[in-house]
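Journal club side-thread
Mid-discussion, someone asked how the predicted structure for our own chain would compare to the paper's figures. Pasting it here so we can look after the session.
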Amino acid sequence: MSKQNESLDVSAKTIDEAIEQGLAQLGLSREQVDVEIVKEGKRGVFGIGSEDAQVRLIPRSQGQPENLQPAAVSTPPIIASKPATPLETPAEPSQPDQSQPASGREAEIGEMSVRFLAKLLELMGIQATVTYRQGADLVEAGETPPLVLDITGGDLGILIGRRSETLQALQDMVRLMVSKELNSWLPIVVDVEAYRVRRRQSLRQMAEKMAERVTASRKKMVLEAMPAHERRIIHITLRDHPAVTTKSVGSDDNRKVTIIPK
């Protein structure tokens, strides 16, 4: 276990997974560290030529100000359709926003992120609408909501891919583009037709159902392999369960959550 006042270098297949592993080792939350990208990593072609990403997590001292985090956007969502520019503003937002108005800096980050993602979609030949918002529905209570870029349109299943790998790759590209522009790593989430919101709800329901089975049978159960952010949802859902505990086993793409009776 690393000391909480020392920086920690972590390598993993993706930047997100490296950050998550580092936070687990330090025992800190995302808001308690600064993240420096040491190596972006490469996906390679069919696994050939791939390189792990490497990040450095630097715990913040008491009283140290946090990096800028995207906050709520209460103005009508900025929409970028193919082509990416100019940006359009709808007359009325699809859902009322009761949060405080975004600062100029927060709006600037949201609009820039929309432009980057819309341009990527344009290059992919996909016509869709991109909006940005505060993602309180994608984090636990008390956690800082990420900036969410919602993609809507027709027949967008191609953007999700098997085990959401395509969506994750798209998200990684946008994060890198924005981070390089700002010289700061931001927890940006890319979603397609609320897929991540639905998946999150599905995983929580599955975790509770599997916990009931393990409680009744008193036998451990190994779930299917999942990416790091999905395994985290399972762990958090069951962390206060009175009858079971969870543990991740395996490595790389075969890492799985095991539900164990107490």
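Post-session note: Strands lie at 8-12, 33-39, 53-59, 80-81, 129-134, 147-152, 188-192, 221-225, 244-249, 256-261.
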